[in-house]
């Protein structure tokens, strides 16, 4: 009985990851966000940015992007938030922060995430602005 329960338990534990997904983290580049100080500076910038852009209604396909200067090297954090749906969608402040910080915490070189109910956020550290 114990051996039959293990595959079931493994499937149950993996289910949230399948549903929620993980950010797409490119393997190349500099792993700036592998340092706690860099992640903290990026999170602080994300807090400010999300407080400015949300809550708001995004039209289908609408994208907002900005390069922020932060208090840690690299000095810039490039942020994108896109409504990947065809219709309007409301972005809350908490949702904005959660989606972008998930990328910062999961992707040392930055990344993107298209697994969040039609939102397509991106966050990338850099010495320069790309947006």
TrEMBL record:
One Pfam short name: GBD_Y3
Protein name from the UniProt record: Glycan binding protein Y3-like domain-containing protein
InterPro entries: Y3-like_dom (IPR054443)
Signal peptide, first to last residue: 1-21
Keywords: Signal
Domain Glycan binding protein Y3-like: from-to ranges: 46-117
Region Disordered, annotated ranges: 111-131
Source species of the chain: Aspergillus pseudotamarii
């Amino acid at each position: 009985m114990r051996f039959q329960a293990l595959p079931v338990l493994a499937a149950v534990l993996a289910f949230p990851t399948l549903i929620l997904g993980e950010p797409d983290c490119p393997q190349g580049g500099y792993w700036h966000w592998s340092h706690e100080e860099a992640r903290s500076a990026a999170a602080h910038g994300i807090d400010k940015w999300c407080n400015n852009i949300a809550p708001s209604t995004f039209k289908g396909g609408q994208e907002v992007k900005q390069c922020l200067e932060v208090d840690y090297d690299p000095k810039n954090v490039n942020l994108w938030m896109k409504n990947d749906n065809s219709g309007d969608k409301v972005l809350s402040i908490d949702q904005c922060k959660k989606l972008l910080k998930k990328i910062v915490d999961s992707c040392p070189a930055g990344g993107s995430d298209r697994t969040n109910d039609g939102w397509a956020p991106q966050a990338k550290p850099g010495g320069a602005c790309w947006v």
